[in-house]
Design brief:
alpha+beta, 5 helices, single chain, 2 strands
Length: 132
Amino acid sequence: ARWHARLDPRTRSIDFRGGFSVEGLASENKGDDGQYDVICLLEVLEHVTDPHSILSSIHSLLKPDGKLFLSTLNRTTKSKLVAIWGAEYIMRYLPIGTHDWNQFRSPKEVQELMAKNGFLQTDVSGMVVNSP
């Protein structure tokens, strides 16, 4: 992403951050008004033990009109077959044990988590991974 951003003068100043937790970043910026226009939390929520902590931290980091883009696996039979059995056990794309189906969340559960942490959900879309 950094390399790609350097190609366009309009995106050269993007501040890419990584290598630490969202909670750590929020702690560093405690007392500051939100500073980020956009935060992407993609395929992470199903791996965290405390989703409230990460969502609360993200909320504190966003500007008042900032946007959170969140994606996570829905807890369905299909997701268990594809993400766990297919990707982990059959195709071996991921190490066995990467996913715990009980940590997957339904769209309603995600909406409730977001609301409890100060977010207003504006759009819900399903996504499917296509083979290259």
